[in-house]
Amino acid sequence: MSGGTAFEFPGAPGGYHGRPTRRLENGHCWIDVLAEGGPRIVGFGLPGEGNVLVEAPDVSWDNGYGKFELLGGHRLWCAPESPECSVPDSTGLTLAPIPDAGGPALRLAGATEAPTGLRKTVEVRLDPESAAVSVRHEIRNMGSRTFEVSPWAITSLRPGGMAVAPLPGPADEHLLQPSQVVVLWPYTSWSDDRLEMGDRFLAVLMHPAPRFKIGCLSASGSVGYLNDGVLFVLRFDPALGSPHADKGANLEIFADERMIELESLGPLVRLGPGDATIHDERWELRKVGQGLDAAAIAALL
């Protein structure tokens, strides 16, 4: 079915800033996806409550391939980052229900990108028993070139909260090899007041400020973002022992004046013609109340 065809999933009330959407609900949470363009997830929340994802319909740029609209929410890119990441994706989406999924489920298949020949697909499945959703990302090479890529899932959230990634604690014994990877981007400073490093966590406080980005090799494959008493939890397979882009990071946190992004990365793979790579995430929403510090959030994860 095309995105313009109505089926069992209704459009979200009011759409998304004038763009048609489809809504999946299970009584515990709701999730909105674009019905045209993407694949993009643009809304996620608890029943009767607002969107935990950031909405940025006015942000766009052109890296040489035409106007790419950020929009906010969740998107799928390829790492390492290059201008080919932001190929416009406003047309060509195909939507289809996923049968026998055990709950509300949709498959969002984007158009094949002309500059690369890559096609991105996102499958969204709501857990019937909880405020949780499984998000499967696929990048398939429909062209003739071979790429070395990592699936890079990016979730943009509203400002005002704190992101926390658990880290392995220090060991008592004298070990000879390093146990952790932490990487910075050139525009990031260790002295930034948004950054907090603990023995067992890495935290980023999200308040509007210039760009900041830090990454790590997450052993747990988990990161959380607490905002207004609601904890957004993201989990993924950390694929330890596999090569990763960005100097070995499989988890990255970006923040600027408008949003914070939780970014998980799959292993770096060679993608020949016809090949595909898959990267799975699981999202959860929990009401945990106000006042938790970074160590307490890390313990919940």
Give the key terms.
single chain; 301 residues; mainly beta; Beta-galactosidase, Chain A, domain 5; ten-stranded antiparallel β-sheet; 4% helix; 45% strand; disordered N terminus
Q: How are the elements arranged and paired?
A:
Blueprint: E1 21-25, E2 30-34, E3 41-45, E4 55-62, E5 67-72, E6 74-79, E7 94-97, E8 105-109, E9 118-126, E10 132-141, E11 147-157, E12 162-166, E13 182-184, E14 195-197, E15 201-205, E16 212-216, E17 222-227, E18 230-236, H1 245-248, E19 251-255, E20 260-265, E21 269-271, E22 276-287, H2 294-300
Antiparallel strand pairs: 1-2, 2-3, 4-5, 6-11, 7-8, 8-9, 9-10, 10-22, 11-20, 11-21, 12-15, 12-17, 13-16, 14-15, 16-19, 17-18, 18-22, 19-20
Overview of the molecule:
By secondary structure, the protein is mainly β. It has a single domain, classed as Beta-galactosidase, Chain A, domain 5, CATH 2.70.98.10. 4% of the residues lie in helices and 45% in strands. It contains two helices and 22 strands. A ten-stranded antiparallel β-sheet has the order 7-8-9-10-22-18-17-12-15-14, covered by helices on one side. The model is unreliable at 1-7 (pLDDT under 50).
